[in-house]
């Protein structure tokens, strides 16, 4: 058997530090005042303004109109992330179900068309999508923020692959047991896909959480601001001799990391199973 | 309880590939029918057409008095046991058994009662709360059978249900299936490629080859009077020896040997001769002999299989372990134990004389012949 040696641990420790140190620096720095940060730069030492900065970020109204608080931004981001994740999962599961289990004449063609859109990033179709949403008067709404991005080639592809690995006999047994298409989907396929759903949920949640360009286009009303925009906003106020609120930017950034981390920690065992286990 | 009438059923796939050719089988109520044949012979396709999982291209399938060609599998009053069990992996054993009943809107109390009954019959009570993954192969198989029995269907369909089990368990489960079917007296169709399973389970065997029926009959009938060389070589282990022979009047020439037939010759000219390995025995002095040049011997304990050549044709004899071996064994066979097949079609020539399996010839004391 291979025995782990000191060098192995060293590599692991260096790798872990490489990834974690920037986060620690951001967290520590966020505990100092803006002026201090401006003077001394980033720091690894904790400061004594933790409560102050974070309370301010979460509750103080900011922005041009003074209507948006950090908590509101967190809420918006959550709505976006959760909306994305659940919407995408429902849509792509149904699409994959149709492609795999129903004998449509052009099912394969449809699948390949969906599959090729994997190659196109959101940015390619962002203008037409924006145009459509404007015409539908859906700018500055959650619907407008979420719906246009729901169609997911990635999700459809993953679910298709998963459904294909479900043994045919299961479908046949269910048919003999008197389960129709809807029953089979709800009673058999959805429970079997649990780990897959968890994996896609994490990926899609983080994707939605991190959206920046699309919310910026779709919303002008500050009450729809997400965390990602909020961070940007803070650093944009370099007017006159005012020092940018670095501390607040860092605090928001740290806050922005938390929900995705939480979700990954909670779902991680399912997540890994979903991506590695091919059997049910 | 139902009869099944399969008449002129064919399966034609795209580009005219015929998987099943105009098959006729009529199955009596409570009968256990085994479809047997090599892989790709269409036996599973036929079963799946009865189940409703494949469309029927031609012909009709009747279950009871109802033509079921266009009836949904769930409505056919059948239950099926699959090779890989096809248990729902996320459901407990109880839920697996109850699922079909639940979908049919059976009252809860009745579901509980029926599941309990099936579980008792199959000794599954301790496992009702387990998921299939926590069960052994044999237990899973029993759950699959339980799922079939709770619904009390008119017909059981088995699609190679034992091929995923190890040899020992297979024998046990074979017994259980037979017992269960006897007890419930439900009409059953069972598909297998294992001729031993087919012989032991069937009331009647249907031997399929290339999508066509080669022979239908009781296991012993098929064993003792195979209708073709295909059946002869497929049923029975070791496979029947099939050699070229020539009939001249009452004499049969096989390679260097000539045997007198005592009036059993059904034809004349070139024929394929079938000899069961267990019908060969050491020749008595003065008898016509088949000289077998021994290549190698397989010991099975109760008997030994002696493989060798008669002339240039391979032959296997099953001999008792007490018989001394020599380089060339002089063997004999009762003429009424010979099978004759046409060389071109492979079809049997002449009816099997009924006594060939009704009454066995007297045992002959083994005599060891000196080597020639």
Model description:
- The complex is a heterodimer of chains A (280) and B (372).
- With 280 residues, chain A is mainly alpha-helical.
- Chain A has helices at 6-29, 34-40, 50-59, 70-101, 107-116, 126-135, 142-146, 153-165, 168-176, 181-192, 194-209, 213-218, 227-235, 246-276.
- Chain A has a single domain (50-276), classed as MetI-like fold (Orthogonal Bundle), CATH 1.10.3720.
- Helices cover 69% and strands 0% of the residues of chain A.
- In chain A, α5 crosses α8 (153-165).
- The radius of gyration of chain A is 23 Å and the shape is globular.
- The model of chain A has no long low-confidence stretch (mean pLDDT 83).
- With 372 residues, chain B is α+β, with helices and mostly antiparallel strands.
- Chain B has helices at 43-51, 93-103, 108-121, 137-150, 167-184, 195-201, 219-224, 229-234, 355-358, and strands at residues 4-13, 17-27, 32-36, 58-63, 66-67, 78-81, 155-159, 187-192, 204-209, 212-217, 241-248, 251-254, 257-260, 269-275, 281-282, 290-299, 304-310, 313-319, 328-332, 339-342.
- In chain B, β12 (251-254) and β13 form a beta hairpin.
- Chain B is elongated, with a radius of gyration of 24 Å.
- The N and C termini of chain B lie far apart (62 Å).
- Residues 354-372 of chain B have low confidence and may be disordered.
- At the A-B interface, α9 and α10 of A face β6 and α2 of B.
Q: What is the helix/strand order of chain B?
A: EEEHEEEHHHEHEHEEHHEEEEEEEEEEH
Per CATH, the class of the largest domain in chain B reads: Alpha Beta
CATH 4th-level superfamily of chain A: MetI-like
Oligomeric state, counting identical vs distinct chains: heterodimer
Shape of chain A: globular
Low-confidence stretches of chain A: none
C-alpha-based Rg of chain B, rounded: 24 Å
Q: What sequence of helices (H) and strands (E) makes up the elements of chain A?
A: HHHHHHHHHHHHHH
Would you state the CATH class of chain A? Mainly Alpha
Terminal-residue CA separation of chain A: 31 Å
Average pLDDT of chain A: 83
| Number of contiguous helices of chain A | 14
Strand order of the largest sheet of chain B: 6-7-8-3-9-10
């Amino acid at each position: 058997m291979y025995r782990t040696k000191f060098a192995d641990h060293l590599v692991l420790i260096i790798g872990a530090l490489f990834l974690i140190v920037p986060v620690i620096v951001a967290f520590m720095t966020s505990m100092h005042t803006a002026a201090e940060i401006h003077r001394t730069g980033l720091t690894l030492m904790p400061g004594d303004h933790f409560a102050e900065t974070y309370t301010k970020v979460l509750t103080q109204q900011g922005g041009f109109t003074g209507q948006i608080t950090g908590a509101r931004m967190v809420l918006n981001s959550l709505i976006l992330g959760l909306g994305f994740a659940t919407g995408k999962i429902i849509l792509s599961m149904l699409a994959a179900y149709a492609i795999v289990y129903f004998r449509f004449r052009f099912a394969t063609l449809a699948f390949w068309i969906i599959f090729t859109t994997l190659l196109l990033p959101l940015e390619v179709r962002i203008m037409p999508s924006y145009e459509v949403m404007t015409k539908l008067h859906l700018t500055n709404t959650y619907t407008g923020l979420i719906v246009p991005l729901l169609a997911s080639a990635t999700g459809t592809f993953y679910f298709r692959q998963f459904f294909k690995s479900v043994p045919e006999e299961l479908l046949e047994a269910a048919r003999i047991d008197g389960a129709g298409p809807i029953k089979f989907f709800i009673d058999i396929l959805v429970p079997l896909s649990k780990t897959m759903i968890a994996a896609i949920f994490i990926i899609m949640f983080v994707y939605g959480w991190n959206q920046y360009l699309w919310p910026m286009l779709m919303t002008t009303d500050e009450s729809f601001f997400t965390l990602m925009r909020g961070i940007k906003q803070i650093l944009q106020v370099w007017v006159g001799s005012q020092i940018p609120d670095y501390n607040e930017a860092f605090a928001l950034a740290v806050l922005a990391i938390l929900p995705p981390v939480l979700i990954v920690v909670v779902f991680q065992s399912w997540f890994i199973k979903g991506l590695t286990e091919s059997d049910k | 309880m139902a009869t099944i009438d399969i008449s002129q059923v064919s399966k034609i796939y795209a580009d005219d590939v015929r998987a099943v050719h105009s098959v006729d089988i009529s199955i009596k109520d409570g009968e256990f029918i085994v479809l047997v044949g090599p892989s790709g012979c269409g036996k599973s396709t036929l079963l799946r057409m009865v189940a409703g999982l494949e469309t029927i291209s031609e012909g009709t399938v009747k279950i009871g008095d109802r033509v079921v060609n266009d009836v949904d599998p769930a409505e056919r009053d059948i239950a099926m046991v699959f090779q890989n069990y096809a248990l729902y992996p996320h459901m407990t054993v109880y839920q697996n058994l109850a699922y079909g009943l639940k979908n049919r809107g059976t009252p809860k109390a009745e579901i509980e009662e029926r599941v309990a009954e099936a579980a008792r019959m199959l000794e599954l009570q301790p496992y009702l709360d387990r998921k299939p993954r926590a069960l052994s192969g044999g237990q899973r198989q029993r759950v699959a059978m339980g799922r079939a029995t709770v619904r009390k269907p008119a017909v059981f369909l088995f699609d190679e249900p034992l091929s995923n089990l190890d040899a020992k368990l297979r024998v046990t489960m074979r017994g259980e299936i037979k017992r269960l079917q006897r007890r419930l007296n439900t009409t059953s169709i069972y598909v297998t490629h294992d001729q031993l399973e087919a012989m032991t389970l069937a009331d009647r065997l249907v031997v399929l080859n290339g999508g066509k029926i080669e022979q239908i009959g009781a296991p012993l009938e098929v064993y003792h009077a195979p209708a073709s060389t295909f059946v002869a070589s497929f049923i029975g282990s070791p496979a029947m020896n099939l050699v070229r022979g020539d009939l001249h009047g009452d004499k049969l020439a096989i390679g260097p040997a000539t045997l007198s037939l005592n009036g059993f010759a059904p034809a004349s000219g070139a024929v394929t001769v079938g000899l069961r390995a267990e019908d060969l025995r050491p020749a008595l002095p003065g008898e016509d002999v088949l000289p077998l040049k021994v290549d190698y011997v397989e010991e099975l304990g109760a008997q030994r299989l002696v493989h060798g050549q008669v002339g240039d044709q391979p032959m296997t004899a099953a001999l008792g372990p007490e018989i001394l071996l020599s380089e060339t064994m002089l063997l004999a066979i009762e003429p009424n134990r010979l099978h004759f097949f046409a060389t071109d079609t492979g079809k049997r020539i002449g009816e099997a004389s009924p006594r060939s399996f009704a009454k066995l010839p007297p045992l002959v004391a083994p005599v060891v012949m000196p080597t020639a």
